[in-house]
Amino acid sequence: MMVCEYKPGLEGIPAAQSSISYVDGQKGILEYRGIRIEELAEKSTFLETAYLLIWGELPSKEELEGFEHEVRYHRRIKYRIRDMMKCFPESGHPMDALQASAAALGLFYSLRDLHNPAYIRDSVVRLIATIPTMVAAFQLMRKGNDPVRPRDDLDYSSNFLYMLDEKEPDPLMARIFDICLILQVEHTMNASTFSARVTASTLTDPYAVVASAVGTLGGPLHGGANEEVIQMLEKIGSVENVRPYIEHCLETKSKIMGFGHRVYKVKDPRAIILQGLAEKLFEKFGYDKFYDIAQEMERVVGEKLGSKGIYPNIDFYSGLVYRKMGIPTDLFTPIFAIARVAGWLAHWKEQLAENRIFRPTQVYNGLHEVTYTPIDQR
Ligand code: CMC
């Protein structure tokens, strides 16, 4: 058997062959199925991009309308899922509520038919359609309110924002939110996608695949960073405090949230687009000091760590955008999951097409031939 060098975090080790997305971390390029994200952010919608990723090509007008129609009419969640969510503690994190609810969906659709394209399509539609409803339902129920029914006359993003506070969103806000979903939908072999593919490789159901990916996305080194960025900006509190804060992080060797990336050694192209979106929102709805603090952070971190290739990543500006939209901080990562579910499902489908169960090896560095010590002699 070939012996490979152990690489912590599997750095540089390919875990799959994939044609879904591509990153050039030196040039700051991200493509979905070969199309640059800048172009998709300008011209596409989240559902169209989801279709592109999952089925490999941009849909025709009829295909897109058909997909949008199916998603629209699968948005409601079963009352038994709602009842289950009502029992969750209101102090629990919405990512945990989402992980449990996504897994619970599998209880209702337990007939696994992985070779049937209709089963794949139904599962894709159901997960993309219901995850936003579950996030919004938990948000309202934890405040003691009933969930809001989805509105069939609203597009995907407008409906989610409507379900959060029963108010039709401003059209610019809804469009910016949709672009954020496009930017967050897919990103090659990141931790949650890897986790989705490992789970998929056992030929379990797509609800288990998504639930395991949601659990992985929640950590602060991955999708959870967007929430931590806002907490960090609040803690810093003013532009003058930025430099001492960063110097303290560097002295104590603690990570500055929203900066650095395993693949990008330049500013993340998604962060560039998100910064522009944040500016549009600030122009229309008023600037706040957090944007000034963020810009100063980017400047000081660039000065101190730019030579190491550490620049803002997607999570640095997404939090600012969502905060300006009035979305509670602990919903930022569930929103990341609303987007990323389409990427995970594209990888689920691709994994199934050429499946082999993931079963890597390890470098054992423990003991051998140890004798058992009876309990009274330990
Ligand atoms: N602040 C300070 N130093 C950093 C940072 C940071 N944010 N990121 C990397 N470094 C330094 C790190 O200390 C190390 O320095 P040295 O070589 O002197 O020991 C070097 O850069 C390499 O860091 P690493 O942690 O080994 O890099 P990694 O590829 O294993 O981790 C990362 C990548 C994203 C986990 C890391 O940069 C990080 O923890 N960033 C902060 C959390 C964050 O923003 N996460 C969101 C990532 S992007 C979206 C997503 O994946 O969801």
Model description:
- Helices cover 56% and strands 3% of the residues.
- It contains 16 helices and 3 strands.
- Strand 2 (29-32) and strand 3 form a beta hairpin.
- The chain binds carboxymethyl coenzyme *A.
- Carboxymethyl coenzyme *A binds at residues 9, 190, 221-223, 225, 255-262, 308, 310, 313-315.
- The site of carboxymethyl coenzyme *A has 19 residues, from helix 15.
User: What is the count of β-strands?
Assistant: 3
CATH class label: Mainly Alpha
Specify the overall morphology. globular
The CATH topology, please? Citrate Synthase, domain 1
- Kindly provide the radius of gyration, computed on alpha-carbon positions and rounded to a whole number of angstroms: 22 Å
Helix/strand layout:
Layout: E1 21-24, E2 29-32, E3 35-36, H1 37-43, H2 46-55, H3 61-72, H4 79-86, H5 94-108, H6 117-141, H7 156-165, H8 171-184, H9 191-200, H10 206-217, H11 225-236, H12 242-251, H13 269-285, H14 289-305, H15 314-324, H16 332-353
Antiparallel strand pairs: 1-2, 2-3
The protein binds carboxymethyl coenzyme *A.
Carboxymethyl coenzyme *A binds at residues 9, 190, 221-223, 225, 255-262, 308, 310, 313-315.
Give the tags.
378 residues, mainly alpha, Citrate Synthase, domain 1, three-stranded antiparallel β-sheet, 16 helices, binds carboxymethyl coenzyme *A, transferase, Citrate_synthase_bac-typ, tricarboxylic acid cycle, acyltransferase
What is the structure about, briefly put?
With 378 residues, the protein is mostly helical. Helix content is 56%, strand content 3%.
